[in-house]
Design brief:
Keywords: Membrane, Transmembrane, Transmembrane helix. It is built from 4 helices and no strands. By secondary structure, the protein is mainly α. The protein has 2 domains: 60 residues, no CATH class; 50 residues. The protein is rod-shaped, with a radius of gyration of 33 Å. It starts with 6 loop residues before the first helix and ends with a helix.
C-alpha cells in the first residue's frame, strides 16, 4: 500500500510546528501578559498605528510590574493623590489666612505702640 503525502503540506505543517514551539518558548520566557500585548501591538501596527503609543506605555508598565497589576495601582495612587491634594489645599489656605491675620495684627500692634510713644 502506497501513501501519498504532499511535500508542500508536509513543509507547511513543519513550519507551523516550528512556530508553535517558538511561541511556547517565547511564552515561557516573557509570560502570558507580554505575549498578549505583543500580539495586540502587532495587530495595532497593522490596523491602527495611532494606538501604538498607548499600547507601548501599557507594555512598559507590564514589563516593570510583571503583570497588569500596575493599572489598579495607578488608580489607587491617583485617588490618594487627589485626597491628599484637597487636604493640602485646605490646610495651606487656612495657614495662609492665619499668616495674613497675624501680619495685620502685628502691623496694628506696632502702629498702636508708635502712637502711644508720641
Amino acid at each position: 500500500m502506497v501513501i501519498f503525502v504532499s511535500i508542500k503540506k508536509l513543509v507547511q505543517t513543519f513550519w507551523w510546528l516550528i512556530a508553535a514551539i517558538a511561541f511556547y518558548i517565547f511564552l515561557k520566557t516573557i509570560g502570558l501578559s507580554m505575549a498578549f500585548l505583543l500580539t495586540i501591538a502587532l495587530l495595532t501596527l497593522y490596523f491602527a498605528p495611532a494606538l501604538f503609543v498607548p499600547i507601548l506605555l501599557i507594555a512598559i508598565g507590564v514589563h516593570f510590574s510583571g503583570d497588569f497589576s500596575f493599572i489598579p495601582d495607578l488608580f489607587t495612587s491617583a485617588f490618594w493623590l487627589m485626597v491628599m491634594g484637597i487636604i493640602f489645599l485646605i490646610v495651606s489656605d487656612n495657614s495662609h489666612r492665619l499668616v495674613k491675620r497675624a501680619e495685620k495684627e502685628a502691623i496694628r500692634t506696632t502702629s498702636i505702640g508708635k502712637e502711644t510713644r508720641k
